[in-house]
Amino acid sequence: MNILGTRIDNVGLDDCLIFIFEALAKGHEIRIVTANPELIYRAQKDNELLEILDSADMVLPDGIGVVWAARQLGGVLKERVTGIDLTYEILKEGDRCRWRIFMLGAKPGIAEKAAIEQSQKYPGIIFDSHHGYFTQEEEPFVLEKIRRFNPDILLTGLGAPRQEVWNYRNKGIAKVRIGVGGTIDVLSGQVRRAPRFFQENNLEWFYRLLKEPSRISRQSILPLYVLKVLQTKYFN
Ligand code: UDP
């Protein structure tokens, strides 16, 4: 499905897990992007970002805004697949299959805490982590740490689009690289995920806005995104 120039794959959570399993079994290296409306909107005006999305092995519809746009543009997307839902499934499978998972991102101390918390719940997984506020000078050290750990899965939570750029530029450090946004904060227990009501009514974005009103400047892109989708629907 093409949404404002970005390719979105019509896949659900299960398809994505199968894709990951296959890649690990066959020894293929893959990069997965969770594309939300903000990223799709930005990609229209940013050729590097568009190339990053286009060249990803899988682009997931992250959020109801993407599923809605698909419907407006005459297509259907199976379901929304968020970074956090995908991560929870990866943790369950990782526990069973003894995967090595590296968490990169969030403020200092948070990724370490997430690794400790999650290794209690999923003792089969081997975790390592690093925070996401490293400088350019520190980057080679971070890359070396990841390389030495040799992860099956690298969960990159540096915020969009930095995490997408980072995963795109750093090939060869993990078998599967996925941008997961604020997931590491939730895994650490420091930040609570939106209550079920908000999740079930597609209002997770609104809950995050209530908790962090400063997100309003980023979310102000959303009305522009809606207008652009409707413009494409009626005038293109
Ligand atoms: N983050 C980071 N390094 C940065 C900027 C952000 O590690 O330079 C982390 C931030 O602490 C948070 C995560 O990226 O854990 C996601 O941030 P945000 O909520 O802005 O992203 P979203 O989930 O909306 O993509």
Q: Strand order within the widest sheet? A: 4-3-8-7-5-6
Domain unit count: 1
Total strand segments = 8
Low-confidence segments, given as residue ranges, are none
Residues in helix, %: 40-55%
Q: What assembly state would you assign to the polypeptide chains in this entry?
A: single chain
Order of helices and strands: EEHEHHEHHEHEHEHEHHHHH
Question: What general outline do the C-alpha atoms trace?
Answer: globular
Number of helices: 13
Q: Tell me about the largest β-sheet.
A: 6 strands, parallel
Rg, Å, rounded? 17 Å
Sheet-strand content, in percent, reads: 5-15%
On the 0 to 100 scale, the average pLDDT is 96
Features:
about 240 residues; alpha/beta; six-stranded parallel sheet; binds uridine-5'-diphosphate
Topology at a glance:
Elements: E1 2-3, E2 6-7, H1 13-26, E3 30-35, H2 37-43, H3 47-54, E4 58-61, H4 64-72, H5 83-97, E5 100-105, H6 110-121, E6 126-130, H7 139-149, E7 153-157, H8 162-169, E8 176-179, H9 183-188, H10 196-200, H11 204-211, H12 216-219, H13 221-235
Parallel strand pairs: 3-4, 3-8, 5-6, 5-7, 7-8
Antiparallel strand pairs: 1-2
Helix pairs in contact: 2-3, 2-13
Describe this entry's structure for a reader.
The protein has 236 residues and is an alpha/beta fold. It has one domain (2-235). The protein is built from 13 helices and 8 strands. The chain has helices at 13-26, 37-43, 47-54, 64-72, 83-97, 110-121, 139-149, 162-169, 183-188, 196-200, 204-211, 216-219, 221-235; strands spanning 2-3, 6-7, 30-35, 58-61, 100-105, 126-130, 153-157, 176-179. The protein has a 6-stranded parallel beta sheet with strand order 4-3-8-7-5-6, with helices on both faces. A two-stranded antiparallel sheet has the order 1-2. A hairpin with a 2-residue loop joins strand 1 and strand 2 (6-7). Helix 2 (37-43) crosses helix 3 and helix 2 (37-43) crosses helix 13. The protein is globular. Uridine-5'-diphosphate is lined by residues 105-107, 132-133, 157-160, 162, 181-182, 184-185.
